[in-house]
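Dear support,

I submitted the protein below through the web form. The confirmation email said the job was done, but the results page showed an empty box. After a refresh the structure appeared. I'm attaching both so you can tell me whether what I see now is the final result or a partial one.
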Amino acid sequence: MTKKKIILCVTIIALSILGIFAFKSFQKYQKQYTGKQWYERQSDYINDLSVYAGEMDDIFSLYIAESISEDDFLNHVSLLQNQLSVIQVSYQQEKENHPVRTGSYTYNQKYACEGVEETLTHLQEILDMARENSGDVTTLAYKYLALHQNIIDSMSKYTAAQTAIAAGNP
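What the results page shows now:
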């Protein structure tokens, strides 16, 4: 082979490899959400979490009022854990499959998204606490009230950011 043919083959191979890398990078970029898109997706999660928190309130209220037994309460907590796990897995999968482009958030969009993540964390904390303190209803009631305030605060972050965005302050 002549020198020109060798250089041509090496150039073609290098350009092919470079083209493959460029295509893969483009595909990865296309899967990413902008901050606005990710913020818009949060409404589905916050709606699910609002319904979930209401169900949790009902179960805790029944147990604290001694309308259900400890075994029934723990069974309901187990069901709540299963529901929360489904929401958490869905949230994490979407977050991994569609990472948010760096620098594409506005302050309020990021604040709202943080509110959703914090709500997921606080709900898990309540379920963990419920399993640990199910034998002592008084302790459970006080700890639930304290932790429930965290849920209210984190959901309020989302609501406050949503209100600011709707008012034209992204």
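Response: this is the final, complete result; the empty box was a page-load delay. The chain has a mean pLDDT of 89.
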